[in-house]
Structures are given as C-alpha cells and as structure tokens.
Amino acid sequence: MTKTGDSSCPRVLIVEDDAGLCESLAAALRELSFEVETAPDGLQAVQKIKESVYDILLTDLRLPGLNGEEVLRQAKALYPDLIVMVSTGYGDLRNAVNMMKLGAADYIQKPFLKDELIVRIEKAIEERKWRWQSRAAREQTNGSEWGDLIGKGPAMARVKELAAGVGPMRTTVLIQGETGTGKELVARAIHHGSPRKDYPLVSVNCAAIPATLMEDEFFGHEKGAFTDAQQVRVGRFEQANRGTLFLDEIGTMPLDLQGKLLRVLQERECQRIGGTQTIRLDVRIIAATNTKLDERVQSGAFREDLYYRLNVFPIFLPSLRERREDIPLLAAHLLQKICAGEGLAQKQIAQEALKGLVAYEWPGNVRQLENALEMALILGAEREYLLPEDFPAICRRPASSESLPRVEIPEEGADFNLLVSRFEKALILEGLRRSDGKRSRAAVLLNMKRTTLLEKLKKLQAAAL
Q1: pTM of the predicted structure, to 2 decimals
Q2: Residues 310-335 pLDDT 10s
Q3: Which of 40, 99, 39, 97 is nearest to 73 (CA)?
Q4: Among 294, 288, 328, 4, which Cα is nearest to 163's?
C-alpha cells in the first residue's frame, strides 16, 4: 500500500492482548502512514471506539474483559461502515466464520505474515470505497457529473466554476438560493470534487427536525442519557467523520443549538448527550439557506459569529426565472429522467408548451418544473408530444367571456352555497368518469391533492345517506 497524505490516512484500532504482536503490527502500519491506536483488552477497545472514530478495527477473537465478538457487536452498532478484521487461532475458525456473519470484513488465522494482513486491509478499504461510490452513484442522477444541475447560461456556469474551485479545499461553504433551486445538488458536486469523496456525505434538513430532537440528531447520546436512551446513538457529526456534513435550511436552527454548532466548528470536537468523553472530528461543513442570513443576524434570530464561520465561501444559486435560457435544456433532461424512472417511452415537449414553460415565473424553481413535467406525462397519456393543455397550471390561456359558464340569477335570488356544491359535485363526478374511477388520476385532472379529493368524496357519500 502506498503512503497517503494526512487528510486521508486510515485510522486503525488494534485490539490484541499479546503486547509484542500488538506493537509489531502497529509499527508496520505506521510505516505505511496509517494512524494507529492500540488496546490490550475488549473493555478498553469499546471505550476507545466510543471516544473516537476509526476506519479499521483489527481485533483478536479471544480477549480479556470483553471477547472479540462483543467488541464487534458494539463497534458495528455505533459505526456500520467500520471495517472489522478478526485475527484467530487454529481452533477458532468456526467462531471466526460467525464473526463474518455479524459484519466482520475478513478474518486471518494466526500466525500470519504482516504483508498478508496489509494486503487484506487494503482489499477491505477498496471494497468499502466501492460501496460508498456505488451508494453515491445511486443518489446522483444520471446525465453528467453535475446530475440535475443543468444549465449552460452564464449564471449556472459561474455556480459550477465556484463549486469546482472550492471542491478540493477544506473551506466551509454557504449556499444561498430560493427553495427548489438545487442547493443540495451543488453540495453533492462539491463533495464529489473533494478529497473526501470516498467518505460519507451526510445531509441534515434542519427545518425537518423538531427543536427538541435537534441536539440528539447532531451529537447523538450515550445509553441512559435520558428515559428512552436504551442504547448509544451516533450523531450526524460522527457519521460524517472524514467526509462532509450538509446542513440544509441552516437559518431555522434554534439559537441555543447555534452556540453548540459554533463550538464544534471552532474546536473540531463534540460530546454525545449524557457523555463526558470528547470525540475528535474531521468534518467539512457545507450549509445552505433559502433565507437572507444577514437579515436574520440583524433581527437577532441568527448568531453573528456563527454566520461569519459559515459564510467563508458563499455561492449564490440563481432562481429559474433568472436563467430562463436554461429551461429548454433542463426540461428535456428532467423529462428524460422521469420517463426512464417510470419505464415510459421517451417523450418530447411541443414548441407551444415549451414557450409557456419559458415564460412562467416558477416560484418553486426546478422542483416545481419537475413536478409539472410529471403531471404532464400523466395527462399526456399515450401521446408522443406534451401539449400546453398538459400543463394546466403553467400554460394557462387568457380567460375570455366565452370560456365562462352562462349564469342566470332568478328574481327571487339564488342559494349560492347550494349551487356551488352542486357544481363541485358535478366536477368531481366528471373527473372520476374521465379517469375510469381512478381517484389519483381524477385528482390530477381536477388539479387538487388526492387527500382533498378523498375528503370531498367522503362528504358527498355522507350527504347521500
């Protein structure tokens, strides 16, 4: 194995009660630029694993304190991607095979050559990298290294230039843009263009986590830290160690947690809830927001010191209406992706419909465009081309007096609520007829949520009783 730079040196914990063998293995691995720590028994090994994050655990099967199997169980519960190698004596082969079933990557029988162990470690590291790369490839959309971040206009060209430039650095990045502009796609591109690309990219949507659970989500907890803490839980910071942590909607983070996040960014270490051990961290932070953080700083809703810690390298994502020239290319890409995902024949967008898409304001940006295309595919049915009527919320024709139903109000007046309810019922029944009774498609035809349609059907059925 060739020597690597400090930022990518694998960290190894050797658990071996034979002091001579332990030191010999540690020296051999340190010569190859591994960062090595040792433990003489299972209890100390588990303690070290709780205090720090390792890439490789090399453990003997027979150990004082806790045996190798229990060390494996506890280590894998904390870090599922940890590479565990088991060394075993001649009579322990059956137990070694059982360790493989519990998640060990490999076992090696004593006595063994150091070179053989190093070859097996190298193979296990490569296999883990392959798993991570496969996982990342599944998360990324097909098409290009930029996934769905499609666009050749000057605004997107600048975004890609900035992302490519900052990727190889450790610099903290703050991505700013409206909802649906693709902030996570930019974060992914930065991660995959960095030396950390073979390590996890962990995403956290700060707006989706209740304030009472946010600290536990970020830092984890020790067993017994609170009533429901039945076992140790690893937080997102530890999960992202050696990799990247993407903090989406950072502007929604409560003030008390902002202070704790600031400390982690400054000290590069954290503690689990209920714990006393300090855990060292090597995590790159990419944050994103759809709000103006400087304004939130002025209003006192966001800490100024944290803002400056995050805003080291800002990237501003343009809205879709600010880069209309990219809409034809982007729409074609998204349509191809949706058709491939649904197993449908590829379709095209008619020029008249495309004009409507380019002219629309897109308050929901790329996410709204993708939703509109998915709806159009359903409405377009078997047609090869998607027409303006397949985009009812986007390509609206100007209303005319001929398009409005003729209404006459009698001299004695009209029951407004009764007439509206009758018209609503007629619309729903016609939608169900047109969709052959399929409620999901009827909801699409009526441009309403399926849950709303179901609620209205319940009311109609109750009124008929």
Answers
A1: 0.64
A2: 999 999 999 999 999 999 999 999 99
A3: 99
A4: 288
Distance CA 369, CA 375 (A): 10
- Count how many domains the chain has: 4
Among 291, 205, 306, 286, smallest CA distance to 251 is for 291
94 and 154: one domain? Answer: no
Q: Which of 285, 318, 351 is the last residue of a domain?
A: 318
Same-domain check for residues 88 and 153: no
Would you say 326 and 156 are in contact if contact means Cβ atoms under 8 Å apart? yes
- CB 314, CB 174: distance < 8 Å: yes
Residues ≥6 apart with Cβ < 8 Å to 192: 136, 140, 145, 167, 201
Of 109, 134, 159, which residue constitutes the final position of a domain? Answer: 134
Residue 312 domain flag:
yes
Tokens 């419909």 belong to 353
* Cα separation, 261 vs 254, whole angstroms: 11
CA distance 93 to 217: 39
306 has a pLDDT exceeding 90: yes
Residue 158 sits in the same domain as residue 113: no
Q: Which residues contact 193 (CB under 8 A, 6 or more apart)?
A: 163, 164, 167, 168
Q: Measure the CA–CA gap between 167 and 315, rounded to whole angstroms.
A: 12
Structural domain includes residue 396:
no
DSSP 133-172: HHHHHHHSPSSSTTTT----SHHHHHHHHHHHHHTTS---
Q: Is residue 87 within 8 Å of 61, Cβ to Cβ? A: yes
Q: How do strand 269-270 and strand 279-280 relate by DSSP bridges?
A: antiparallel
The verdict on 148 and 124 lying in the same domain is no
Domain span at residue 452 reads: 415-464
Per-residue confidence (pLDDT) for residue 8, from 0 to 100? 59
Residue 233 forms beta bridges with which residues?
A: 221
CA atoms of 327 and 132, how far apart (whole Å): 32
Spatial separation of the C-alpha atoms in residues 427 and 330, rounded to whole Å: 34
| Token representation of residue 463 | 């009124």
What CATH number is given to the structural domain containing 430? Answer: 1.10.10.60
